[in-house]
Amino acid sequence: MRIVVFVLIGLAVLVLALLAYAATRPATFSVERQLRIQASPEQLWPLVSELQGFNRWNPYARKDPQMRSHYSGPPTGVGSRYDWESSKVGTGSMTLTGQQPGRAVQLQLDFLKPFEGHNQAEFLLEPAPGGGSTVHWRMHGPANLIGRVMGLFIDMDRMVGRDFEDGLQNLKQIAEARA
């Protein structure tokens, strides 16, 4: 019986130490990837500024062809909204919150499942020297204690970054075929 008590106390100390260490981690996270694409910002604009255009190259939609989705609000511009529900990539919504035509789009991402999260995303288009564009895909948001504990075991930048890289490659393929 005494051994069980010592084991339980040891486990409690380990859990508390893990939580204490996680609490010292940054309270925000940020992920960014970029790719040079041989298309002008004007040619890329409909693919990043319109949610239906985005879903032509969205790596998450490609992970689950059975994803249920719904568009609402105006078809383009601030207020455009896209909701999704998927057993593979979760449930959430994306709302266009700002744009600088031909240059940048800001989005609010709200994840409901498998974990709740409220983040901001941005697509930035920069003319590249010698032609084409550099496309930046950024996401940042708060990291609650659960997220910080998970971050000790899962590298968010690597996990989400791979998806961003896949998405930018999809965008490149579509845009360069059109250019």
TrEMBL record:
InterPro entries assigned: Polyketide_cyclase/dehydratase, START-like_dom_sf
Name listed for the protein in its UniProt record: Polyketide cyclase/dehydrase/lipid transport protein
Lineage, uppermost ranks: Bacteria, Pseudomonadati, Pseudomonadota, Betaproteobacteria, Burkholderiales
